[in-house]
Automatic annotation (TrEMBL):
GO molecular function: 2-oxoglutarate-dependent dioxygenase activity
Name of the molecule in the record: Cupin-like domain-containing protein
SUPFAM superfamilies linked: Clavaminate synthase-like (SSF51197)
Transmembrane segments annotated in the record for this chain: 48-72
Keywords: Membrane, Transmembrane, Transmembrane helix
Top-level taxon in the UniProt lineage: Eukaryota
Claim: Membrane is one of the keywords in the record: yes
Length: 318
């Protein structure tokens, strides 16, 4: 075997020597030969780079046309619809608070089925408010459910498209990419059966036909100022266990949220510059409760009791 390898090496050497001699017969020298070899190697590298760039461009175009980047971005940015995609820019440039909104606030203001007159003095306050049992008379308390919204969206043309294109779907910690995926889950998972992965999602309802059906089951909260208008977008939050992560909302008006089914624990924190003078708050919202928070200044997040289904709707006023 070693003898054969040695013979092969001698044969290759002889062929290279013959090629060199032929090259020199044409009046070239060894320096030119070395330059030609290096130049060919460089040319091959350039061709390889060119091919790789071309292939990358083709792959990028295919991904763009198929909407893969859009799907990935929606999944990665699965935060509230009311938080824009430039959230980090907003956070970095938000005005520094003077902390008046949270000074001496240690718990939410509690009202019990307040009238419009009773609520009026708090209506535009930045202090958190919970109006207990204010909405128990709404038909939505008994009618709204996972199946209700599944049937609603499956029955209306363009309902899913409106969520995808006009108001962002919010997957939070779940593994869903779209609202269509949520309503395609198995019955066992939708009911949080043993062994199934818990889920919690939210989405904005922007389609007028969807809103028309929803609003058959609830009016404008009776305690809001008489000149308050219904928003063009209203939100649904529902699911089990993990709720929304801590964040601010960059919206134009104050918000109200109606807790319709199950309970939800709210966690509020002052902005970082106010942490030394203000307190964090935690409180429970129960079925029929209305929660009003200036989510533009209070960092807020929610959690759901293990195994309990929670459903709430949210809108703005002002």
């Amino acid at each position: 075997m070693k003898l054969q390898e040695k013979q092969n090496q001698l044969l290759i050497k002889a062929e290279l020597t013959e090629l060199n001699e032929e090259f020199l017969k044409f009046g070239h020298n060894l320096h030119e030969l070395k330059y030609a070899i290096r130049n060919e190697s460089t040319s091959l590298n350039r061709k390889l780079i060119s091919v790789l760039i071309s292939v990358s461009i083709v792959i990028f175009c295919i991904c763009y046309q198929c909407g893969i980047f859009d799907i990935l971005s929606r999944h990665a940015l699965g935060v509230r619809c009311i938080i824009p995609n430039n959230y980090f820019v907003w956070e970095a440039t938000r005005p520094i608070s003077d902390c008046q909104f949270c000074t001496n606030v240690t718990e939410p203001i509690l009202l019990y089925n307040a009238t419009r007159e009773e609520f009026s003095k708090y209506a535009f306050s930045s202090k958190p408010i919970v109006i207990k049992r204010a909405l128990l008379h709404w038909p939505a308390v008994k009618v709204f459910s996972f199946e209700f919204f599944k049937n609603l969206y499956n029955s209306l043309d363009d309902a899913y498209r409106s969520v995808d294109e006009e108001c962002q779907f919010l997957h939070f910690r779940s593994n869903f990419i779209s609202l269509r995926d949520v309503f395609a889950m198995s019955e066992a998972r939708s009911n949080n059966a043993p062994g199934e992965t818990p889920w919690y999602v939210g989405w904005g309802n922007c389609d007028p036909d969807v809103l028309e059906v929803m609003r058959k089951y609830y009016p404008k909260p009776h305690f809001l100022p008489a000149d308050s208008e219904l928003s063009a977008k209203e939100y649904v939050f529902m699911g089990y266990d993990a709720g929304a992560t801590m964040h601010l909302d960059f919206i134009n008006r104050l918000m109200w949220q109606a807790q319709l089914q199950g309970t939800k624990t709210w966690h509020l924190k002052p902005s970082p510059e106010c942490e030394t003078v203000c307190h964090s708050l935690t409180f429970l919202a129960e079925p029929g409760d209305a929660v009003l928070i200036d989510t533009r200044v209070w960092y807020h997040g929610t959690t759901i009791a293990p195994g309990e289904f929670s459903l709430a709707i949210q809108s703005e006023y002002g």
